[in-house]
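#onboarding

Welcome to the new folks! Below is a worked example of what a typical request in this channel looks like: someone posts a single protein sequence, and someone else replies with the predicted structure as tokens. Don't worry about understanding the tokens yet, we'll cover that in week two.

Example request:
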Amino acid sequence: MNKNFSTKKALSFAEIVVIIFILIAVFCMLFAKVFGVKQESGIIYNWKKTLIATQYSYNVLLLTQKEEMEKIIKLPEHERNTRILDLFKTTLNVNTIDTVNSNRSLKNYKYRFLNGRRIPKDSKYHIKEFVYSPDGKIMAGLNWINDDCFNNDGLCGVIIFDMNGVKLPNRFGLDVFGANIYRDKIEPFGSGLSYEENQINCRRLETGVTCSKFYLMGGQFFK
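Example response:
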């Protein structure tokens, strides 16, 4: 009696190589996703800490340096922004001395909206000069636009942070966040808007400015 035996064909070298490449690709994708989530969480966490420190710093300045600030905001734009940011530096942990990155990289730094568009020069979000934190990781910039805001409820200015310095992507909603400054408080961009309104602005084709508030409301990092 003849018996039929099933034979198993061994994988060829080419097939083994293909399988290995597939496994490596899958591993890289999983690693990138896990690493990306961890990195995103770190950026949001640091933004939250930075915002809290900024709000605290401003409250201290209003209690101890308000008269000085009222004088400073009457100065020309460049000097005004530099002097006010200098008042923040103790609690914000920022310094005008570039200790890690080169001065050239700081001068050439540019940031954009989430959709990739440039910040118009007449926009309140357009800041000409940034300063580094002493460790060179975070950059802060300030644009004080109202020299009489302490006498009304209008906007005084804005303060913007790049949470990883000159490193890309340098875009709102990804590594750039900021807040509005009023006479008695500092609020992240998007404050006063609903979760849904902030979410709409925190998408690929939008500016991403209100991501500053959206992530603090529990919103998911931009995808």
